[in-house]
Amino acid sequence: MLKKIQIILFVIVLSVVSFKPSFAATDSQIQAGNKLRTLKILAGYEDGSLRLDNHITRAEIATILVRVLGYENTIIVGMEEQKFKDVKDSHWASSNIKKAAKLGLITGYPDGSFKPNQDITYAEITAMMVRITKQDKNLEGVWPYNYINKGRQLGIVQEENINFNQKVTRGTVAELLWNTLLVKIK
């Protein structure tokens, strides 16, 4: 009896230890990330890695959006009016958050916050990518389906089964951003 219990415990411990949630970047995400790094849109970390399996924050995506549009070293008229109660001027991404908000690519919350360290969801990043294409006018349907459907129509979203509330990784963002760059603007 003791031997059976030990075997069962061993199997349980082995299963728990060997189980890791899978956020590993796909080949297409790695390719997109490398292309975006070459274009200096996606920056790597100090060790040279892109960490495509890490989640991405609202501050990071605001910076990437500003960079992809070429506004990183530009002052945008009215950006100083973009104030968020949780983003101090000393925040590393303050300027890019204000620019992205002024450009209408990303918004704050009704309580006046931006939540710069909050991870973004698939629905949020898809909406941002559709906004970059400037094809977000007169969308039909309700949030987030209106943006997801438009993203599919444009070729940005290529996955069929999507959990809209799922936090996205840097790899997912790289792939969606690359798809967005390939969209033919009408």
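The above is record 1. Record 2 follows with the same two-line structure.
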Amino acid sequence: MDLSICLAQRGVLIEDDEFLIERCRHGDEKAFEELFQRYSQKIYSLAYRITANQQESEDILQNTFLRAYEHIIGCRKISNFYPWLCRVAINLTVDYHRSLHPNESTEGVENDIELSTNSVWGNPESELENKELGEYINAAIEELPIRQREVFTLKNLEGLSHKDIAIVLGCSEDAVRANLYQAVRKLREKLKKYLS
């Protein structure tokens, strides 16, 4: 018997993703609701940062969790649930972006460029204190090419590692570093009057 199921039968609460997924597979709808509660805001925020469209972000959120449910019920293996969920959401946002901009490449640059992991904006609390700067930063992020926007969002706003971003986007860690470098360079240029 699976250790998590055994522990659950003895009254020990285990709330990790794998345990919730296993409960979903056995027909426990509350387990899927818990997964939705745990990650829905993050997935919506991720979609909104990339699409800048509330309705489309809501659709992406619903479709992401619909696909997750289908995979779980279909007994397909999902390892590292949150990065996998991000991958589904990113794929849906890329499809949305391609429908609006069919001639723009989503591949981004593929150069091997090392990058410091320092964020371009520093303390998130200062963004809240300065609404104008926050709006300017969001506008600058929206102007990035789609792949650079994805990488920047996953790294700086979702906190994923280079390895997890590579898994989510289906590219190499070098491509992640290169796109992150380009995104930060462009953002620094656009925001240099605020950074001095």
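The domain at 3-100 is CATH 1.10.1740.10 (Rna Polymerase Sigma Factor; Chain: A).
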